[in-house]
Input
Amino acid sequence: MVATLLGAVALRGQQALESLLQRSRAGAERTLQLNGHAERLGETTLTMERAARQYLVLGDNTLRQTYERAAAEAEAHVQALADEAVAPKATQAWLAQRRQIDRELREPEFIPGTRDRALAAAFRTLGELKQTMGERLRRVTESRNAALQEELEAGRLALGRQVAAAVAGAVLLALALALWLARPLRRVETAIQALGENRLDARIDIRGPADVRQIGRRLDWLRQRLAGTDADKARFLRHVSHELKTPLAALREGVALLQDGVAGPLSDNQREVARILHDNTATLQRRIEDLLQFNATAFAAQRLVRKPTEMGALVAGLVQEQQLQWRARGVKVELRCVPEGAPEGRPITADVDAALLGSAIANLLSNAIRYSPPGTSISITLSQSGDGLFIDITDQGPGVPPAERERIFEPFFRGQQQPLDGLPGTGIGLSIVAEAVAAHGGRVQLVADETPHTTAPATAGAHFRIELPHALAD
Output
């Protein structure tokens, strides 16, 4: 559309320029023709005068015929000037004077020298009239050139206005098209973001151009596929976990009976084998429980039950629940609440799903305890900024290698750094945290510079931050 608009203006300008050039060429040709007529008029007038005077002296009819031919040619030149409206009075006077000369040549001479003097005066008059026509021709030519120049200037200004209007129209058209496309493209962006955040309930319906509508239909098809995949994954985890728990319980019970000597006393080698079986069944049971918890968290994230929750009390309860673990390891846990613009210790109330968010905080705290060396401390800081809530959990463990920081929240990803108790994790805990926080419209991140959001002291190790915008209750 923009190209059509600009092309039409360019074509119109080219046509106007061609028209002006043609008129200019035609005017130049007419000017050359008229100047030629004027020049030849002067030449033929001299031929007429010379032949007429010789005829008066010699009376030779050949000279009379020469005069007649020159007079006819001169009259044709004068008529050509008259047709172009060049000095009409002068041309009429020239024709009248020529007829007078004809009469003078036919009249008999009564007084000697009279006809010669009259003829000379007549030809002088013809010369004066020829000069008048030449001067008038020069003025007409200048006037026509000036008019053509004015027309060229007017055409240039008109073309400039048309180009300016076309450019302005093209800009407005481009803006209109951009606005027309921006809204559906924003909807496409929103739909893609919703797919990335695993919000698969709402149907994707995008209005706009045909191509954008086609993209919307493809995105909705992708949403349905993702929803089906999530449902299949949840069913698979649920069924496999439950199917594994029953034989695992029997296996653990059998190992416990062997260790208790119910089937008879065990040798040292047999007791070592039983211990290995017991440890591996315990590890397998913990991983199955993690899978169930991951599945339950993903299910709960889609059905939040938000209630005003006092965050200090919630986190303090989680710390108390894991008291045996951090005390057994010789680790100290410090909890600080720093409301914005208020004394430390003031309650912070947030509108959250306490069970789901609590499981995320508990996972981070459990990881911090497992990775913290004896004698170190774990800092938990609650703070706010505007209506946003920040939860910082910092430990003094080995930290996360830079190469693994981008993947630690992926399900089933396990880094090279293992807990101090020697029991490898399943790689699900941090993905549970990310799922629960994302369900609240927030995000969890590993702070790269290891600097807490608030005035909490900086420590070595890992520093995780949960950000919940617009979470504080009124």
Summary: The chain has three domains: 2-168, 211-300, 304-468.
